Please model this.
Amino acid sequence: MAKSSTAVAAVPRGGSKVTRYNVWGYIFLIPFIAVFAIFTLVPLVNTIYNSFFENYVDGLRQIGPNFVGFDNYVALFTSGDLPKYFANTMIMWVLGFIPQILVSLLLAAWFSNPSLRLKGQRFFKTVIYLPNLIMASAFAMLFFTMFSNVGPVNSMLQGMGIISEPYAFLDHAGSTRGLVALMNFLMWFGNTTILLLSGMLGISTDLFEAAEIDGANGTQIFFKITMPLLKPIFIYVLITSLIGGLQMFDVPQILTDGGENPQRSAMTLIMFLNKHLFSKNYGMAGALSVILLIVTAILSFFVFKMTASDEVKKKRK
Amino acid sequence: MSEMKQRGGGVKARRAVCYIVLILISIFCLFWFYVLFINATRSNGELQTAGFSAIPSTHLIENFTNLFQGSIPVGRGMLNSFIVSTLTAVLSVYFSTMTAYAIHAYDFKGRKLIFTFILAIMMIPTQVSTLGFVKMMESWKLTNNYIPLIIPAIAAPVTFFFMKQYMDSNLPASLIEASRMDGAGEFMTFNRICLPLMGPAVAVQLIFSFVSSWNNYFLPALLINDEKMKTLPIQIAQLRSADFLKFDMGQVYAMIAFAIFPVIIVYLILSKNIVGGVTAGGVKE
Amino acid sequence: MRKSIKSILGTGLAAAMALTMVACGSQGGNSGSSSTTKPAASSQAASSQAASSGNSGAEGKVLNVQVWNEEFISRVTDHYPGYTKTDATSGKIGDVDVKFTITPTKDNAYQNNLDKLLPNNAKADANDKVDIFLIEADYALKYVDADANVAMKLSDVGITKDDLSDQYKYTQDIVTDKNGDIRASSWQACSAGLIYNRAIAKAVLGSDDPAEVQKAVSDWSKYNETAAKMKAAGYLMTATANDTFRVYSNNVSAPWVKDNKVTIDANIKKWVDDSKAQVDAKQTGTGDLWGDEWKAGFKAPGTVFCYFGPAWLINFSMGNAPGSDKGDDGSVAYQGGWGFCEGPQGYYWGGTWVCAANGTDNPTLVKDVIKTMTTDKKVLKEIAMKDSDCVNSKSVLKDLAGSADGNNKVLGGQNPYATLAAGAEKVDMSNTCPYDQGCNEAFQSAMKDYFTGTAASYDAAVQAFQKAVKEKYPSLTF
Model:
């Protein structure tokens, strides 16, 4: 997450020439900024504007837009739903993220461990990436079949005598969230493994050798050397996963068919937003979007602070 | 001596454990592809009456024949998906790299601000602006047009971020300087020096953007309804809303398999670069 | 980078399971391969050639038809005289080009598309004007609304009450606006009944004769008694509580919404009480329709006594029919092991209605297409024979009931048409409202939590229902 603060051309070496080069910085930015402004910023500003209006569709009838000030915001906050959906989102993210990071660390440690010299690494690295390629909706269809009351998982559990009658996975908050987390885990742990692996391979082997000579054992080496040096990439994984977690939508939406059951315990913030988009409730959706923006902004602030302190350390090195 | 031997034995045992775990995990990952394939070999009747089976049935060819002889132009759909996804991937990667290059290689006023700004954008959920976007495209008469599916990919903050990270560790200033000394223009330097050096990163992001565009249903479904322009995910949805006589889960699974196939091929071709690319692009400084 | 990418793309709201099939009853002819068998010239000359070519000079050159699947396309291809197929989604009638536009129902895409097109139809370019669009019962009232006025009154199209006299009344009630004007017409009458497993009926009730079985389920209290007997014998009454929902909800005494106020009808409440008792007694499950748990009873010898459904469910969803070229799939259906009776209350499930879009520039042709496809008895008989639709014609159903043509292999040779026809007469759809689809879905979801015990009480489940309705329809109150 480096700020990479040292731009290449930042070495001023005689004025005008450098400045002339640097104009190209602006030029190269034009396509991105222009496209962003047209296709994202304009609709986004429109969204914020809409959040102050009552504006929805009832059948084919357009209601509004009528200016209502902060009414939409008040309605959202007083309903008490937001903390719940925020909590759902975070719980499911954490449930998926913890095994993801643990399994990925383990696999990355194995892949990078020179004394193990695992064969077929390329095969394994490729395979753990594959689940990411299946369309989420197709993936969910397979999950339904596997975990239905009459599915193979239940018959296996019954066969082993663990349960006497089928367990309805999608009727219980815990197991529903668990399945969402499992799907997210499956789709993303390969990616995390490879990222962490890259960090580990970057650590100089001299350090390990020195530690071994000092008599450190494997566990000590891992916690005293590998982990601290892995911190930047760890933070990078954390940030990207957190963003993904906050925007979690398709997996729980499809797996719970809209998130109503059980007791909306797998309803994420974006799924809630989607409910309002469905009735073309531009006012409510707009207000919710703005709140989401503020939440992400706050979280990003912490994240940036974390990485900034990381940056300082790196510079000291 | 004995200690050495013991350690050797320990490594062997540990290696065995590693292989077992890796193989189990691989099975867990590949299992879904297997079920998908099994389901594509089963008839609608079999899929309706028995939810799950671990044994392939005999209807694979029949399902594919029905799929291709049915009235949904799946070949055309694949071509469309291919056009949209390829262009999306190429534009997204090229321009996001260019943007990253602008931030990386030049020093200008507002540079830091723009960098932070783009990172902030990365955190905005895309759903937030979807409705406004669709409304706008309708008023511009850009429905049944690939422009709204492709062009917005030029501003891909996530791709940008990755490229920026990669450049920090893999694109030394000296190379750019050298290119300038040789009298190459800035644009030339970007195309001839920078892009080739970004090879693995480009491969990674190409496949990422390609896959995401390939699987995208939501936006295309809102914007495309011309039969000749529909992409594969829309066609799959259409197959799933087929009327009763035509409703055939076997065909649906055959089509999903059909749709996944090219992505896997593209992925396998690029996978060498991907594994290497992510490695190099990771934050290792 | 990871998930964010994925969510950009993945926004598939897809209810992967809730296969949009609920769509409806329909069985679209084998039009895929039908260009050879098309009876274009064959059957009738009488009724309809009128509009084809002669007077189309003053009218539009393109007939645009909005659909969500191929059902209607294949009906027109196979049965509309003078239609020549160009490719899967276009053809010609005389010198008018017919263009079908398919928008899948998933994620509401079909309705979103109509909502975009219809209000501006009058202003659209002549060749882009929507001329005909199709609707389903679930959201029909939205489009036949008198104030919205996007579907023409059939009387204005030139189709008289007389033309429609052979249709079942409920199929007209659903598409009648508040002023009493009919604004759509259907070729299907998806009246439905109770489909029971004959072997289980014999074992538990002592007979698999439809009349005998009907006695055991003729009203809800008898039905509940039978459910207890089934449980005692080790069978489920229905696979899920959702099976009976349509039966109760079609027989309400007041609509969901009146004067913007949502009320839960006594019959709906009865569904909740009956279902809760049955779920608690393990006489039924709580899975979703079309889920694996629901379909489990399709497999021979069967664990579920009955399903609720119309003809299309029997013919096309419960497995391969005996003698099917797809072979024995191990289903009860393949053994002809189902029976059909009326059940506790009359109801319907599914159906597709045809509307003339306001602003059409092909009024004469539109009139002829609707009239021919939904009221012409010859055409309807053909459709019934070729596509197994339960057609919307009292006289055709009567014919079928009295002939071996109506015998059904899945039902072990039973002829269900007399029961279907009687059922269609009994369906009462005067209490529909434009919010039905949203209310029904929200209610079933909320009550599922009550049945499974995740919601603490009925009141808590009702609150969840009200919240979900408010999100869908902000204007409603409770």
Observations:
- Residues 2-62 of chain B form one domain.
- Chain B touches chain C through 52 residues (CB under 8 Å).
